[in-house]
Specification:
The chain folds into two domains: 58 residues; 138 residues, 3-Layer(aba) Sandwich (Rossmann fold). The radius of gyration is 20 Å and the shape is globular. By secondary structure, it is α/β, with parallel strands linked by helices. The protein has six helices and seven strands, in the order βαααβββαβαβαβ. Helix 4 links the parallel strand 4 and strand 5. A seven-stranded mixed beta sheet has the order 1-2-3-5-4-6-7, with helices on both faces.
Length: 206
């Protein structure tokens, strides 16, 4: 049974993070090496200081919580059960098509945020309401707020089986899949694993 989910990071955790950022022990760097041997040290130091002093997590948390989020427990691969975090935005139209959207690496469910409105309510963005989707945007197991797998060998195929179980749990008998990067492989395998219900996959890679 899906349960509503709200991101709520304790202030004590934010303070602890800032303390640890302030105690970073920086390595030496080859003089004038820029980015030749990896990340530029001055850039990383500037980024770390911004994160410690200026980054407004409460504002970002509020922004993330504007998306309707849930968690649910699914049994998918005969190995273990998974608690999956996901965004679920109902479509506004005569017959919205369910669509499971899979993020890439390194990424998160936040990748769906800019397209969530146009996909679920195309009429509000100058489109045809007949083109509306009901969007499910889960966090891959081990990412964000989804449970990390406790057993080894978790890969694209097992992720696809989790998605099939998730869409079944949500009661969708006919749906599409979309993803890029790692999400491309997972989306294609979701269609492969569930041809009776997943009518197709649209994938993109860099």
């Amino acid at each position: 049974m899906p349960r509503p989910f709200t991101i709520d990071i304790a202030d004590s955790e934010i303070r602890d993070l800032k303390r640890r950022l302030g105690q970073t022990r920086w390595p030496s760097e080859v003089t004038d090496s820029g980015w030749q041997y990896g990340s530029n040290l001055a850039y990383i130091q500037e980024l770390c200081e911004y994160w410690r002093t200026d980054f407004d997590w409460p504002a970002q948390q509020a922004r993330l919580n504007q998306m309707p989020q849930f968690t649910t427990r699914v049994s998918a691969d005969g190995i273990e059960d998974y608690t999956v975090h996901f965004v679920l935005q109902e479509g506004v139209g005569p017959n919205p098509m369910p669509l499971i959207f899979t993020h890439g690496w390194p990424g998160s469910f936040f990748e769906v945020s800019k397209i969530l409105g146009p996909l679920t309510d195309p009429a509000a963005h100058g489109g045809d309401p007949a083109d509306a989707f009901t969007v499910v945007a889960p966090s891959l197991p081990g990412y964000g707020f989804s449970q990390i797998p406790s057993s080894g060998g978790f890969g694209h195929m097992r992720a696809a089986r989790v998605w099939v179980a998730l869409m079944s749990e949500l009661g969708f008998e006919r749906y599409g899949a979309q993803g890029g990067d790692i999400g491309a492989r997972v989306s294609a395998l979701t269609a492969y694993e569930d041809p009776e219900h997943c009518i197709g996959a649209q994938i993109n890679m860099p």
